[in-house]
Structure formats: C-alpha cells, structure tokens
Amino acid sequence: MPSILVVNPNSSSSVSDTLKEVLRPPAEFDYDYFTGPLGGPLQIDSVTTEITSAANCLPTLIPLLDNYDGFLVACYSDHPLVHCLKEHTTKPVLGIFQASVLHSLALGGKFAIVTTVKIWEVLLSEAVRAFLGSETLFAGTFSTGLGVLELHDASPEVVSQRIGEAALKAVQNGATAICLGCAGMAGMEEAISKAVGDKIRVVDGVVAGVEILVGLIRSGHK
Amino acid sequence: MPSILVVNPNSSSSVSDTLKEVLRPPAEFDYDYFTGPLGGPLQIDSVTTEITSAANCLPTLIPLLDNYDGFLVACYSDHPLVHCLKEHTTKPVLGIFQASVLHSLALGGKFAIVTTVKIWEVLLSEAVRAFLGSETLFAGTFSTGLGVLELHDASPEVVSQRIGEAALKAVQNGATAICLGCAGMAGMEEAISKAVGDKIRVVDGVVAGVEILVGLIRSGHK
Amino acid sequence: MPSILVVNPNSSSSVSDTLKEVLRPPAEFDYDYFTGPLGGPLQIDSVTTEITSAANCLPTLIPLLDNYDGFLVACYSDHPLVHCLKEHTTKPVLGIFQASVLHSLALGGKFAIVTTVKIWEVLLSEAVRAFLGSETLFAGTFSTGLGVLELHDASPEVVSQRIGEAALKAVQNGATAICLGCAGMAGMEEAISKAVGDKIRVVDGVVAGVEILVGLIRSGHK
Amino acid sequence: MPSILVVNPNSSSSVSDTLKEVLRPPAEFDYDYFTGPLGGPLQIDSVTTEITSAANCLPTLIPLLDNYDGFLVACYSDHPLVHCLKEHTTKPVLGIFQASVLHSLALGGKFAIVTTVKIWEVLLSEAVRAFLGSETLFAGTFSTGLGVLELHDASPEVVSQRIGEAALKAVQNGATAICLGCAGMAGMEEAISKAVGDKIRVVDGVVAGVEILVGLIRSGHK
Amino acid sequence: MPSILVVNPNSSSSVSDTLKEVLRPPAEFDYDYFTGPLGGPLQIDSVTTEITSAANCLPTLIPLLDNYDGFLVACYSDHPLVHCLKEHTTKPVLGIFQASVLHSLALGGKFAIVTTVKIWEVLLSEAVRAFLGSETLFAGTFSTGLGVLELHDASPEVVSQRIGEAALKAVQNGATAICLGCAGMAGMEEAISKAVGDKIRVVDGVVAGVEILVGLIRSGHK
Amino acid sequence: MPSILVVNPNSSSSVSDTLKEVLRPPAEFDYDYFTGPLGGPLQIDSVTTEITSAANCLPTLIPLLDNYDGFLVACYSDHPLVHCLKEHTTKPVLGIFQASVLHSLALGGKFAIVTTVKIWEVLLSEAVRAFLGSETLFAGTFSTGLGVLELHDASPEVVSQRIGEAALKAVQNGATAICLGCAGMAGMEEAISKAVGDKIRVVDGVVAGVEILVGLIRSGHK
C-alpha cells in the first residue's frame, strides 16, 4: 500500500497530533507522521528557524526516504526541507504552501493568504514569486497579528474576529480563494466563511498537500 | 459515490473512447464521459474550433452540471469551456492543459510542452501567461509537426522519433518536466523517456486532471 | 473605395444603430455594419456570451470577409471573434478593447477602464495582460455597477454620477487616460471630463478602432 | 485643415526630403516637415546624439507647437523629443518607434525590429520595456551591421541581403511582424518580403506614425 | 591619488556647494565638483530640463573625462548624462538615483522614494523599471508637494512635516528603506527617522554614489 | 576602527586563507575571517549543503555579531546565512552573489555568471529573481563543468579554456559584465579577459562585497 510521510519540521509533537486528527487517507493509501527531533525549534517564525529546523530534521529524515512514496512538508513557508529532500529522492516532495497555491490555481481566480504575524507578509510574497515566477495571481498576505500559540490560547471569539478581518481585507483586495497560512489554522475555515461568505474558497494546504501527493503517486511519479 | 465528467469537446467519439481506456477512477469515485454533439468540429486545431466546439457543447452540458461533482475539459488548450462552465457551477472545473501545468509545478523545475503543430506554440505560450501570470517557469512549446490524426496514422517509428526530437529540444532549453500537449498523446510517455532519459518527468494532463479533481472534491470543494 | 465592417457580435440591432450614428468615415472610406444573427445573446456580459456570440456570428461573417478591407469587433472585451477572424483573413481585424489600449498608449501615461459591472474587472485585467504582456501601464478597471441596459434606462444624472465616481477612482490610481469600457458608453465622454477635468484623456474604443483600421489599410496592410 | 509636423531631429535635410517623398496625407490633412537646425548631429546613433539633437531642436520647435495639430518625431528610438514636446503641448506627439510598435500590436502576433548597428539592440530593448512595460510580445532587435549612411551608399544587393538575413533571424525567433528600425529604411519593405515571404508584416514607423496621428486628431484629441 | 568628479548638471552653484559640505572622501581619494555652465536650467524638474541640462554640460564635461577616475551625476532622476558619459569613457559613471537603489538593495527589503513634486512619481517609476527591469522591490514614489526651492525656503517645521508624512505613506506601503529623492534633500534624514522610527533605513543617493564609485575604483574598474 | 567579518560558511579553512590573501582593507578599516566550525560541509554544492552550512555556523556566529560593523557571506549563492544574520543584527549583511550583482548593475549593461557545475544554473536564476524581482538584466548562468576542487586541481590551461568558453557564451548571449560565480574563482579574471576582451567587465563578488560593506558603513548604516 503506497504511503505518504507528513513531516512537521518543528519539534512540537502537538502540531503533528493535530495533523493526524485532521487528515484521512483515501482507500489504498496510508499516511505516517514525522516530528522534528528534540533540539530543533518548537515553532517556525523566521528564516533562522526555517533553516535550523531543516538542518535538525535532515539526518533523521534521509534514512526514511526509502520507506515512503511521497513527502509533505507541513510548514506554511517556502521551507528549505522541500528543496533539500528533492536532492535526495526523486519521489514527489511538496510543501503545504505550494500545495495551497496549486489548489487555488486549480479553483481559479486570485488567491490570498491569511496568516499569523507580520514577518510572513514579506516572506510569503517572496515565496509566491519563487514558486510561480510572478505575483500576478496573488492578492497578498494578510496577517492577523496572532502568533501560532495565540491562535490556540486566545479566546475563539478573538481568533475568529481577527481571521475574519484579515479575510475581508483579502477579498476587498480581489481574492476569490483564501489559503490558511499556518499549519495551526487547520479547522478554521468556518471563521473565514462566516466573514466573507461561502462563495470565497478556503484552501487548507495540509489537506491540499496530501491530496496532490496521492494524485502524483497515482499518476505514476516515483 | 462522487463522480467526474470527462468532457471531450470535439465531436470524435474515438477520442473519448481512448480516454475511457486510459483512466481508472480511484475507489469511491466514478468517471463518466461526454463527447461534443454531432455538428461540432471533429478536431480542435485553431481558435475558431475552440470557440465552435465550446458553443456546440454548452447547451447539452449545462443540464448535466447537477449530476457530477467535477468536470475535466479534455482539450489541451486554454479551452473556453473551462471558463464558461465556471460561470454555471461552483463545482471544480479544470482543463487538461491547466492540470498538466499544476502537476509540473508540484514536481518542481521548469516545464515544457511537446505538441502537434506550430500554431500551438503561440497559443500555448499565451495560455501559460494567462494561467500563471508569467512564463518564468515555462521552457517553451515544441511542436512535432504531426497533426492529431497523423499521430495515429503515421508509423510508430516516425511518431516516436518526432516526439523524441521535440522532447530533446525541450530539455536542452531547460525543461525538467514535459507535458504531453495533446489529448491524443496519451500513452506516448515512453517515446519521450527513451529520448531524454527517465530523470525527466512526463506529465499527461488527462491523468493529472482527474487526479486533481478527485483531490479537490475530497478536500470539500463543491 | 476601401470599406470597413463594424461587427456588433451581439444580436441587438439597437447597439449597431448607435454605432452608425456615432461613426463618420473619412473621405474615401466607407463603413458598413453587421449585427449578430437572431438567436445569439442580446448582450455580452460573461465568457459564455462572448463564446456563444462568436460562434453565432462566424457562419454569417466568414462569407463577408472578401467584401471588406478591415474589421472592427465592437464588443469591449478580449472578444474571441477577433482571434477567429484572423484565422480566416489576413486583412486587419481589431477589437474595440485593443483599439482603446492602442490609442491610450499613443497618448502616453497610464490608462484605466471605466466599465459596467464587476465581472469585467477580472476579465479586462486578463485582457490587458494578454494584449500587452503585462499590466505595467494599466491603472485598473473601475466598474460603475450599472449594466449595459441600465446605462440607457437609468436617469442621466445617476449614470453621470456613477461614471464620474469610477473615473475619479481611476485618476486617483494614476490614470491619465480613461477608456470607455463598453460599446454602449459611446457619447459619455463628458460625464468623465466633468468629474476629472479635461487634462485626462477619454478614449472611445469604437472611434479609435475605425481610425486605426483606416490607418492600417492606408499603410498597405491587406 | 488640420496639419501634422514631421520632425526630423537630426540636421540632415536629405532625410527630411526622403520623408516628404514617402508620405501622402489623406484628404483634409496637411503634413509639414522640420529638420534639426544646423549645429546639431547629422545622424543619431547614440544616446549622446539623441540628447544633443533634442536640445538642438527644442528652442526652434517650441514656438511652432501652436501651428500644428500633431507631431511625429522621425527618429527610430525612444527619442527624448517625444517626452519633451509632451511637456509643452497637450496635442498628440508620437515617435516613429512607438508608432511601429502600435501598428504591430494592432496586426497581432510578435514583432521584431531590423535595424542598422549593434548599439541599437540594447537601446531598443529598453525602449520596448519603457513603452509596453515588458518584452513579452517582442521578438528582438536584429542589426544588419550597416550604418545609416551605408544603407544608402552600399550596393543595393548588399543592403537587400543584409536586411533579408536580419529579417530571417527575426522570423526564426518568432516574429510575425518586422519593424523597419531606421527612418532611412523607408522603402526597403521588399527586401524583407523577398527574404521571409509576404505572410510576415512589414511595418514602417514613419507611415504608421502619421496615420496614427491622423486617427488621434480625427478622434478629437487636441 | 584617485579622484571622483561630482557633477551637478544644473547651473546652480549653490547646489554644488551643499554637496561639497556633505561629502567627505575616504583616505587616498579626492572629490572634485562640477556645476552646469551658465545658460543651462537652474533646476531640473522635467524631462525637458533633464535633456537641456545634459546637452549644456556635455561639451565642457567630455574634455574632463581623462582627469578623473569616476563620475557621479548628482540629479535624482534617470538623468541622460549617465548614459551619455558612458559612451565617452569606460570609467565608472553613476547617477545618485541608481546609487540610492543599489544601497537600498544591499540593505534588503523594499525601498521607496520620497521626493518633491508629483511629476517625479511617474518618471521615477519608469526609472526603476529601466534600472532593475521590474518594480517588484519598489514600494513607490511619494511626493511632498514641495519643490526644490521650497524645500529650502519653507519653514523647517513644514518641510519636516511634509517629508514625514510622505515617508509614513511609504512605510505603510511596505517600504523598509526610504531614498531621499532629490539632491537638495541631503541632511533631511532626521525628519524621516522622526516620523517612521529608526528601523527604517534612510538612503542618501549622493553619499551612496561616491561610496559605490570608490568601491568600484578600488575593485579595479577603469 | 570599523571592521568587517568575512564569513566562509563551509568548513574548509583553505578557502578562507585564499580570501585573506586576495582582500586588502582600505585605510581605517579592518577585515577579519570566519570559517564554518568543523562538522559542517567542506564545500557547498547543493541546497542541502547551503542549509547545513548555515545551521552549522549560526551558533558560533551570533555571539560575534556585536564585534563587527558588517558581514560578508562568502558563498556564491542566495546563501541562507545572509537572511538569518539580518534577523539577528541591523548591521549591514551582504552575500558575495548579491554584491556581484550590485557592482554589475552599477557598471551598467547586462550581467552573466560563469560558474562551476550545472546545478547552479537553476539556483542562480532563482537567486537573481529573488534579489532583483526579474531576470530582465540577467544574461544567464554559464557552467564550466569543473567543480570547486577541479578548479584548483585541473591544469591551468584546462581551467582557463573552460572558463573562457563559458564567458564567450555569456557574451554571445548579451552580457557586458561577467560575475565570477564561485568564491574559488578569485584571481581568474584574466582567463575571462583573454577570451572575451577587456571591454567586458569581470566582477569578483568577494572584492565587490567588502567594498560595498565599507561604503554602507561609511554612509552611516549600523
């Protein structure tokens, strides 16, 4: 049975646990989960933690490459692990950022990203340019001001309101699809739909990522 | 059970028959097939036939939109039916051109298109710009000089040689993935791999298309 | 005497009548008018009606190509008839959208489009990219919220006010030229000039279109 | 009767004489000719001579602005006079480079420029980017190696051959229209058509320029 | 001892005097100053004065090219002298506009320009595109509405306030570095820092320009 | 006395020794050198080694940030250390790739990169897009096929020939400046000049990098 490894590059197993709860493999597929070994960053909120989390995961991950048919890097960024793993295997490797962009393009119109804190506004614009070669179809990154931890610690009302406000700005800027710009936003689609209506697509990169990998594997890419 | 309608917008049922043979739905999914009603063009090789095939299909297709969960337009072009159907349903609609580009992006590197005749070189460059907003990741369209019918009537050696030559030019131009630029090229992956080696990805937009639609439907887009 | 066919691709002869009133051929030139045959859409307000109007006109239009020296497609969009007709004649074929962009570029600065309803904001941005290869010189599309019919049925005060507001936004966004983004806006230049002053150019694509065709024909293109 | 001033910014009256012979105003229009005052450069083949020719013409030209309805700057470059004159009059001002690009866009496809010497390859690429915002529709500048004077002094066979070779490279690079990239190439259309066939458009910016100005004036721009 | 000529292309020696006061050559380098000869424009605020100032300076400047090792054109624009001088010497020639962009890129993030009057908003956008090939890293030009002379004649409070307001808009538009968009703004860094905080870089193109030239000369470019 | 730390992110002290020999600080400046701690990669030839070298250096480098006034990352790539260090200090941080691009832009024309092995062709194109936002001014990366070690082990004739061939292709592709695309190419300017003549600029990013940092520090950036 083909299987996909979902890689959480930070060292917080609680994030991996959430992913396990959200994802449901299709018949004939299996998903497995990887958490960054202890000693790496607990959350990724800078280029520095992108780099150190990648370097922290690589020695443990490389020996696992033979065991799986596809790999999803579950950090919403142009995470360096995606590029590193492709140097060590020809099997499909995808990041959740790239996956969310691909599903957005498949749905059509312009896409935006709703994310946590301001630093991602610059980094994700760069990531879009690196992935698509231009920002033509990109309606921008809109930060809520809530960090990853605050997303879970703040009251649900505050979280919903902030996410809704960011989504509204995205739509006013022309977005017809909104990507959840943080692995920790899984399950927060409703806050967006309540704010902007259900004609606006909400794309969860984690879900999009495993689905695209399943499709690539079923198409024969190995 | 969710089902996908594969739309062959020309009026040649033999093309639809070939698609039926190539595609295998995953468990819990069903594929159905549609051929352009008699009176439309038998093959699509110009903007004019793109337009007339779309207009020919629309009256019959629109009443079917309620019966399916996703729609694949199986003409390798920026076919107008994709845009028209999106005006009549919110369900996922995808063309095989766009699908091949999405799978190429997911696999990484630069992609090229190997196609039939010269007219597509301009039309597909425009299609890439329309879909991605730039041609940055596009290594070009390379025509074999063989029309759709010749692909099937010419000797297999000639076909393989022409496709191989076009693929080689694509790789020399920087392509790491090559899209089969014609629905009628399904099954011709080997000719490419023989010419350029198996490190170069070959992407069949028909296969990519149904897989992406399955993923979108499984992700909840309706 | 060289003559130009002005093609109204929808099936409303009243639109063609308006064009006849507005246009004045120069000495030694003749203009003739074509209306979409009955059965096609009465107005064009979607990709679907672009496609069906094109397919509706083609069988009647193609036999007329020998009789004229140039063709103007009088629908403010990247109308497919422009591309189709070019496949059937080498004589100059132009759309009023493209014509308005060319006159704007000739006048210099940045151009914007004032149009009817919101759907055109996305479609006309795509049209600009398709025509010029980038949106660098484009200050955007600004919709009035009034459909084609409302433009004629609403009170002149309301129409003027809405057009003026849209034009003002265009100028605040950097436009130095404003294109009338609908064949039905012919004659509404004054509403714009009243709102934004007469330093801002107003470009009517219908007028621009016949003038450019006359110039191409006089330059020997056939 | 509306009239257009054709401005030859260099100080060689022979160039102006050639223009006079080539151009034929339409009924109800008049063309007049201006040559750069003595003391300016005799030919323009560098940024330096662009600048000095512009500065040389300005004092004499500005007092003439009231006497004409449109102005054509007849140097095939992004000549600074075009921009300067626009600061002194709101009447239409156009350069022959820009005019040739506009007629090429009106005709469709990709355009290239066949020109004299190598320096123009860089300058005209910059000019295209400055005018259109991108080089997407531009198939490049192809120099013949013959300077302006050599165009007239060399044997017609040599001139035809060099122009033909440059045109052929342009077509191989995707051009469907070729602009004569030098005011002194007026009348050399045939050399190109002989080399690349008559399906390729040849655009003379001098002719295109007066025709576009006539159209702008007839459209009411003043 | 290598020496750099700082060229003030306008004919106001007071501007050159200010530059002399601001600049301090490093050990082993010498700076010299050039003012446009009498008869040229006293300030540069249009394409016309760019052109006439360049033409006015050239005859006097060219004989000086042998005496210096690098040249800084101290007008904040895509001043034509930069391009002209490069045609007469292989030694490094730089404009203060280009220098400010280079230091901004070296510092990272997005840069904006705070300038005098509105005309520069269009001209400097064009200048960025001409210099970098795109406006991707450019957060825009923000004019204060104060002309060069007003910068010095208005009360310091008004000047500070206007510059501060423009800088604030630049930062809200994403700028992390702000270029002083006028040679006459030398010394006004503080007004910006007071308005937007000292995390935002302020780049003075005059200072940047001589430093880059020193670096190019020390690197062996001659 | 201000000082600059030259960071060699790989763990080969011989590379650092070469840099020490090549660089000469200007009066009133001091340069110091850092080599990646043992355990990191000995050479950087992939995204993986970029990442692991950065992670390897960071813990040792961060405590040193207070001791210096500027930092040069001496690996010819879009090395992640540049971005990481900027998150830990506001002092100027530059990579030698970016430095070579900045000096190329200052010199004018189009630049190309001559480098070691094929993998860099894709990575450096991406790096240019990331740094400038487009590849408009970039004439491409040309690999010699010689790895870093071969550059020093192969016979000087072979090295010169390969570098010369790559440089020639760069010039034929429009380059007027050629960047040495590897820290280990310091001192190989002559091989290029011999192949392409001394009108083509050769830019050494290591030299350019310290010079630009000196200029930024002298301009007050800290």
From TrEMBL, chains A, B, C, D, E, F:
Pfam families per record: Asp_Glu_race
Molecular-function annotations in GO: amino-acid racemase activity
Residue ranges the record marks as coiled coil: none
InterPro entries: Asp/Glu/hydantoin_racemase, Hydantoin_racemase-like, Iso_Racemase_Enz_sf
The family this protein is said to belong to: Belongs to the HyuE racemase family.
UniProt protein name: Asp/Glu/hydantoin racemase
Source organism: Lipomyces tetrasporus
